[in-house]
Structures are given as structure tokens and as C-alpha cells.
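Technical appendix A lists one of the benchmark inputs used to test multi-chain prediction within the project. The record comprises two sequence entries:
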Amino acid sequence: MFKEHEKLIRDWEERHKEEFKKERKPEEEFVSCSGIPMKRVYTPLDLEEKDFDYIKDVGMPGDCPFTRGPSPTGYRTEPWAQSLYSGYATPEESNRLWREAVETGVETIYIAYDLPTQLGYDPDSLEAEGEVGRVGISLTTQRDWEIAFDGIDLSKVRISQVANAVAAFQIANLICLAEKRGVDLSKIRGHCQNDILKEYLVRGNYIFPPEPSLRLTIDIVAHCARHLPQYLALSVTGLHFSEFQSTPVHEAAFMLADLICYLEAALKRGLDIDTIAPGVELSTGVDHYTFFEEIAKHRAIRRIYSRLLKERFKARKPESLRARIGGAQGGNSLQREQYLNNIGRTAVAAVAATLAGVERLTLRPYDEQYGIPTPEAMMVATRLKYVITQETDLLDTVDPLAGSYFVEWLTSEFEDRINKEIEIIAKQGGALSCIENGYMKRVLVEDAYNWQKGFEAGNIIRVGANFATSEHEERPVRVYRTDPKVEQERIKAVREVKRQRDNRRVEKALDDIKHKKDGLSTRYGRKQSYALHRRSRQVLRDQWGSCGCPERSLGPVCSSSGFLERRNSGEENQSSAS
Amino acid sequence: MGRKIKVLLAKVGLDGHDRGIMMVAMALKDAGMEVVYTGLHQSPAQVAEAALQESVDIVGISSLADAHRTLAPNVVDEIKKRGLDIPVILGGFIQPEDIPELEAKGVSKVFGINTRLDTIVSYVKELSGQ
């Protein structure tokens, strides 16, 4: 049969030789972002080369290996859930924004914290100077939580958060608030970006060294598996690798290598894979410029995940074998220049995510390159969901691109390349070792540098930035900026909490953190006492030490030029602590 | 040919975005300069101390979380406090309306997002008289 295909193709190529010469660039320059040569056309021969087996490699939607998506009906039952990553400086301001968002149909509040909150500082910590409320909400005390979620039903709205280093503190806050309101904990839904490993590589918001941090992550996963069965307590994130400008292959491979590291740590602790796996989510990047790579990447990730959980981790429940994927457009894909073009980029990314079969999707507001998005831009991102889900026929058929010679070939190619990279990491001892020995960061920096050079040479095009540029900057009418006065307001607010709370209970709670084993339940006690982040952080830092290791291993950047310690010691200024 | 230009690159404050500063580090190294990188989460005093210890020609700081209005002038002041005369350049997510104030407070030059790497390399060379 394939002899005939070969003849057909050879004959076709012979007849069109002259036309091929007129293509807009030489053949070797048609290469995907991940460095995969892109052929002019794909045929059954390409699938044959991959040993493609529909039943084994693809199967039916909702069945192993989940290549065709997580559910048998896809979006015919429910479109992807829209989440809006947001947070204005104060609990009061964010409460207004979120209540309004819930009224207009947003199902998930996806909390963006300011940096002091993400790093375990209070607004009045010295380290927080100039940073309070700058990039999200300052939300540190239980009082803040009461204000921020006033009038929002925790049993109906999903509460998601980018917490990472402070995930234990913030999940404790969520549990505490739910209990105070009499909300059944089994009804709490949402997800927590509680993926500390990637912080050492690309996001930089870590407090403790990798090992104890990993332990704390597993504490949280174990606690939530027991008490918050519907909550996705571990969202393993690839998004920030692609935000760092990694290739989609490296993004997926590093995310899955991190996942393996978490699951191994959990099993080592004696946890049951079928108890914890249903609480794991994957969070990926979806960008417009890697349209087909995104589709192939997501289909390959689901296939690899299912095989990994089944064969390596011996999971049995179908829920454990099914990858839950929340996609997000990368802010990096947007451009500052001619900022309205970003709406087009977001729409293309949303279509890619839909064809890729994500279950949750975060789309970027068009003015994000100017600062915290304005409410108008957030609303456009929200409505874009409706344009796609209500106006188009994109949702009517499950995994509509399955069987496309190109998409199936690319999916298999992604699977091969991702597995190869996971193997390279495994040979060096896994993700934790590759964070410490600098391998992963080196790969990321190389990817980013290659991209940057390609962009500056004009080989990678961004409209408005290096193609069809404008002479005058087209600026948004309104740019949101945090009022510098907010810092003083927030300092006043936490000082008030300190004045009113029962300090004996605070000391007792902090003492519990020091001596008890189950990280999360003691932090839960801490929240009831209105203790603040800064003190809890210090207690743990005293035990675990500070983290200076990751930056020391940056190979190409730092190896030959001497390197400085991140901090002189684990000591922090005590004057503002309490 | 003079001696190698030596640049200290630093992340000040709590911001963890380091792609930009890594790219600048790579470009400066490719242009033959010596680059010392402090890593994340530095205080202005730590940056100034490092500049003193390493006897660098230029200090480059990076900020993408809108804390530069506080942090960049603090770095300039901490360097002056140590009796040093080292130019400070700032890169990252900087609103254009902040630039005059930053320059008035002693920042030599501000490079916003999408600045080409060769623009930064040329400026550093020029500033070092090479």
C-alpha cells in the first residue's frame, strides 16, 4: 500500500519542482519553534514512519491514553472554564473587582498576589518597601481574606491562586475562611499553583532551599487529598518555562520532569498514588505563534501523562490517568507596540487552546504590557471566551484535528522529543538534581538567547515591534498604576490586626509550626490566631535555611565570572517582624 | 585595547523575573566584557557592596515588578554612600513617564522592554570610554 503512496508523492514532487523554488524561504528555514523541520505536506507515509497505531496511540475521547481529550463529550457538555488572573492592591479594591467579575459570569477567581505576599513578607516588613500592591493583591492576614471574599460564595466560585512558596499559608487562610462561614470543605474547588520547583528556574519566588520546600509541597498535597477532595492542590506548571521563551518541547518536558519529582516524593512518603493523583493539575502555556505545536504538545502531554501514571506509578483509577490541563496564554506573547493587535493574538491562542482540549484557560488582557490590566481590557478577555464558545462551531466535535496526518505526526514527534528530554533529566538524577546542577536553567537560558537573537535579526517577527512598525507609540487611554499611598494604608491595616489579635494564641501557633510535623494543619492554627506571614516564614527559615543555591549554577552566564552569594547569611532584619 | 569592561548585574528587591538580565549578561559576555551577576532578591546595600568588592565599571539593575521608583534611586544612593562613582543603568518594565524622575535621581540610562541587546552593549561600551 505504501509503495503506491511513495510513487504518488515522488511523481507530485517531480511535477511541481519549479513551484517549490518560488516558496518564500528556502526549505531548511521552515522550522518550528521547537526546532522541528516542517515539511511542505504530510501524508500517511509520515504516520507509517512513526509506527502510528490509532487504537494504541489515540483511541477515543475520555479513554486512555487521553490523546483525544479528557472527556468523551469534550466541549459539547461544557466549554473550558475561564479564569481571570487578577488582583488589585488592596483587599477592598479586589473585592469590588471580583464581585463584579462573578456577576458577569467568571467562574474562577484566580488570585494574583503582590510580591511581598508571595515571598512571605507582611506589608510592614522592611523587604516589602516599594513593592506592596504593585503586581497584585496584598493579602496576608485572615482579616484581609474576610474582606477580599466578602459576598463571594466559596462553595460556588472556584478560588485559584498563584501561591507557590506561600501555598501552605494561603490554603490555610482559605480553609479557615471556609470553616468560619460554615462552607463544607468538600465543596471547595479551584487550584493552587503550588509548584515550587519551577520557582528556582524561572519565577524566582522561593523562600527555602529546594528540599524542604518539596517536603512542604507534599504536606499540602497530602492534607488537601484528605480534606479538600475537589481542590487541585498541586498545579505543576510549564507556563513559566514558555514565558521564559523556552521551546514548547522543553516546556512540556521540564513540567513533566517536575511532576515526576513531586510524585516520587509523595510515594516515598507513603502516600497512595490514586489518592493524590486526582488532585494534580498541569498548567501549560498556549501561544498564538506556536499554534500547531500547542495542539500537538497538549495531545502528547495527555498521552505521556497517562502512560507515565499507569506504567511507572502504577495508578489504577481512571481519574489518576487523566491529565487535567489548565492552559494560559503567555503574557510574553503580547507586544507593547500597537497594543490592540494583542486582541488578535489572544483570539488565535484561544482557538489553539480549544483545539488542544484544555479544561481551563487564562487569556491575557490586551494592555498587560503596560501594567496591571485595566477593567476594560479584562472584560474584553472575558468576552472573547463567549465569542469562541457561543459564536463559532469550534466546540461541536471532540478533538476535530485527530487523524490529520500533520497533527498526528507532530503529536508523535512531540511525544518522542519530550520523552527524550525527560530521559536526559532522569539520567542526571531527576528534576531536583537538574535544578541544583544547573542543567535546566542552562537549557532555558540558551533557548531564550536563541529566541532573542532570532528576534533581533528579524528572523522572528512580531508585528509592531520589528515588522510594520509605527512611528508613534499607540498607548492605551488609561494605564492602571498602583497608588503609592496604598503601601501606608496596608501597613496601617496589618498593624491594626496585630493590635487586636490575641498574641498568646499567635505565639502558640508559631510554636506549633516549629514542633509539629504536618505542615498545613499547624499553619491552619496559625491563621486562626491572625499571625502574619513574616513570623511564620522566619520560624521555618530558622529551621531550613535560606536559599542561595540556584543562581550559583547558571553555567553560561556565571561560571567564568565569579559569583556572589545571594545573601550573606540567612539572617533577616528583625526590626519589622512580629 | 583597554582592560576588559567589568559589569555588575543585579536583581534588586523581590522581583524574580530574570530572563531579561540573563539575556543582557549573555550579550555583554559575547561582547567580551566581564559580567558578575548577583542573583535574585538583593537589597540596594548588597548591590553597592558587591560593586565595591568587585571593582566594577558599571552597575546594571533589572526590575519588572514596578518597584524601581523606590529601588533604583536607593541603589544610586548606596553606591554614593560608599564614596564610589559608578554609573547605574536600569532595565526592565519601566513606564516611560518614570524616566525623567529616575534620571534626575542619578540613574544614567533606562532601557525599557524590547530594547535591542546591541543597543545596551553599545551604551555600556560608550559609558566605559571604549
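The mean pLDDT of chain B is 94. Chain B has one domain: 13-125. Comparable benchmark entries are summarised in Table A2.
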